[in-house]
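Action item from last week, closing it out:
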Amino acid sequence: MNKRVLILGGTGEAAKLARRLDPEIPESVEVITSLAGRTKNPPDLPGRVISGGFGGTQGLKTFIEQEGITLVIDATHPFAETISDSANVACTVTDTPRMTLARPEWRLPPDGKWLEVDDMAAASEAIRAFAKRTFLTIGTRGLDAFSDHDEMWFLVRLIEEPDNPLPLKDYLIITGRPPHDLEAERQLITDYNIDCLVSKHAGGAATEGKIRAALAAQIPIVLIRRPPRLPGHWTESLEDCVEWIMKQL
């Protein structure tokens, strides 16, 4: 039976991995990339691409068994807790080797104007004391936590225009897919007179520009802390991940 590598994707890291494996992987090995299906224009990737999720832990377990998955690479977003938890359980019960390809966290100066909080509610409460024009880069999930700020204006960046109005009193939506240029991020902060940045502590070079721009402008940065790391094999290096995959195969 042919071997199959399942990449849990939807991130730039997952796309890079799929493209890196394409010329190196033996022809007898199939690479499958799974996308959540939340964006209308997914990236063009080599190998087999599936979209829409698995239907929870049991669905992923069934997929691993029915498809004869040899390895699972969790290259999802650092805050994609549900699918990562499902992968941890499904791979454990099916005895399927799993590697997490994690995005490196941003390195922020210890004396910079930034703080970490546990969740969206804590971030919303933190900015209440000082912010008037906040740049929100947290996606659409969790925006409800900021809905009671009657006197605050929000600049909200999303990958795509939402289908419904946001649960905020006063806001402007801008759209764009990473990477975001440092100079463009600086210009956004200046043009919209931003006095606070709220972001998930997702890390990665593609979205680091907003962090560097906010630090340069000396405006407060509020970061939502990452979920705890799950057990198992883990790396921040694409090269190490590829090497692990090739050894397993």
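Closing note: Residues 3-104+227-248 form a domain with the Rossmann fold fold (CATH 3.40.50.720).
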